[in-house]
Amino acid sequence: MAGALMLGWVALLWVLEAIDVIAGHRLDTLGIVPRKSSELLDIIPSAFTHFGFDHVASNSLPLLVLGFIAALRGIGRFLAVAFTIIVIGGLGVWLVAPAHTNTAGASGLIFGLFSYLLVRGFVDRRALDIVVGLIVGALYGSILWGVLPTATGVSWQGHLFGLIGGVAAAFLFRERHRPAEITGA
Question: What residues contact 137, with CB distance under 8 A and at least 6 apart?
Fold first, then answer.
């Protein structure tokens, strides 16, 4: 089920970009332009729109892999985590991105899924998830350079706030352990 969800999600991104190209890049307006109240409505769609096929291609594999791993714990939980990351990441972009910019793409979600998987095991106190987080950190840890304002045309704000959203989601959707029952004789 997790694999089908993520294949469908990534396919949707490609279909949307094809529609965007056919429509003369009209979907690009669904990106987030900072500090305009009307742009708050674009927080969700901005995570699904991209600025060209190269942009979609660069996001596809990490989204597929990280999303698949995160969705293995349950589709409902995954969707709640993804929504949380997208909203926190989008609000962060809306608040701090430079004026007159337009931010879109799934990279904020990717950064959020990365941090979610990295800390989830520690928050849930599950050894297997700690190991998964360490493997994810070893394989994808270099993306952390993306939170630094080093590349023109790349939203480090989206990356940073996506990362924050993933950590928040790990705490918001942690597994609550029931205390052991005490029985008496």
Answer: 118
